[in-house]
Write a structure and sequence with these properties.
Length: 341
């Protein structure tokens, strides 16, 4: 097991990679704990939960709402949960995002931690202190910055995860390597098969390296004023593809990283060979590198991007593998990149 510390303005967070859900009791600092989980995770793992009360929610992006938050508040009140209660979210990004928001607002804030049970939650959602829910169809519209006291990343739990969810998590791992760590990228290329097969040693190294990268960026820029933007590599196009074609996030980000790599090549920042390495790695993992989409609709969606300033977008490019740069790019240049896609 390896532990990493993140220093946030709301407090510090300890991320334990390679720890087991079965040891959760060791990390709970309060006498009374309530676990928040979803129905799938509960079915697989309730047997390994420490003795405590459990609140279960449904699954899917549709339940990541204020209504669900309200239902949890109701159950906490029914359980007579006071300020001494410690909340633990055991689940994927949805459970973590909701638990963090509930813990940050119930009784003006109670203590909380996570056991991240999906690859995406381990390498991305549970790290960085962003919590929140969707509102009227707008993603992550309502939320807070607040760090969990701890995050347990248990690689054993990934074995029950549907393969599609595993592959989706890899899109963010490739992203982290591409923006910040050329060695990690090469390691991923060499160990791709074993990684996707969830070899514990390999996956724990990749999760740890990912957390180091995300935590490093977040430590330097918690509130997304500058450097944190690098974590959006592949996401500008990715979000536009998600909106227009309705593909899952990981797949959209994968195709988005390919477009961003091509733009980096045309700006002479990235060699064509390195762009090819990115495409090949994504393919070997089983991620799509192209997603057919209506160009006009994609451009319209890009025009609504949150990172837009007038007709320019803050766009993450690669200045070589392992080195991201943020630059302004016009909608026209993005359109041209899509034509040549
Ligand atoms: N806060 C952040 O910084 C941040 C970053 C990235 C993503 N997110 C959010 O994360 C969410 C997506 O997270 P996700 O991909 O983990 O999805 P998820 O939480 O919906 O989990 C995916 C599916 O896997 C099931 N599952 C979870 N763990 C399992 C296990 N060990 N075995 C079997 N099944 C399991 C879940 O029940 C669910 O059906 C999105 O809402 C996104 O906005 C947040
Ligand atoms: Zn993402």
């Amino acid at each position: 097991m390896k532990t990493l510390e993140i220093k946030g303005s709301s407090g510090n967070s300890l991320i334990h990679v390679g720890e087991s859900l079965r040891n959760l009791a060791k990390y709970i600092p309060a006498e009374r704990t309530v676990i928040i989980t979803d129905s799938n995770v509960r079915q697989y793992y309730e047997k390994d939960f420490p003795r405590c009360q459990v609140i279960s929610i449904g699954t899917g992006e549709k339940i990541k709402t204020l209504e669900t938050v309200g239902e949890i508040f109701g159950q906490l009140i029914a359980l007579e949960a006071d300020r001494s209660v410690f909340l633990v979210g055991v689940g994927g990004g949805i459970v973590c995002d909701i638990t963090g928001f509930v813990a940050s607002t119930y009784l003006r804030g109670i203590r909380f931690g996570f056991v991240a049970s999906t690859l995406l939650a381990q390498v991305d959602a549970s790290v960085g202190g962003k919590n929140g829910v969707n509102f009227k169809g707008y993603k992550n519209m309502v939320g807070v910055f607040n760090q969990p006291e701890f995050v347990i990343c248990d690689s054993e739990m990934l074995k029950t995860l549907p393969e599609k969810e595993v592959i989706a998590g890899f899109a963010e791992i490739v992203k982290h390597a591409a923006i910040a760590d050329a060695e990690m990228f090469a390691f991923l290329e060499e160990n791709c098969r074993r990684a996707v097969g969830l070899n514990a040693e390999i996956i724990e190294k990749l999760v740890y390296d990912s957390v180091v990268i995300k935590a490093g960026v977040v430590n330097r820029d918690e509130k997304e004023k500058g450097e944190r933007r690098k974590l959006n590599f592949g996401h500008t196009f990715g979000h536009a593809l998600e909106k227009t074609v309705g593909v899952p996030h990981g797949e959209a980000v994968s195709a988005g990283m390919v477009v961003a790599s091509k733009l980096s090549v045309s700006r002479k920042l990235l060699s064509a060979d390195d762009a090819e390495r990115i495409v090949n790695l994504l393919k070997n993992i089983g991620l799509p590198t192209e997603i057919p989409a209506d160009r006009q609709k994609v451009i319209e969606a890009l025009g609504k991007d949150k990172k837009r300033e007038r007709d320019k977008i803050h766009f993450v490019l690669l200045n070589g593998i392992g080195n991201a740069v943020v630059d302004e790019i016009s909608l026209k240049e993005l359109d041209e990149a899509l034509i040549s896609r």
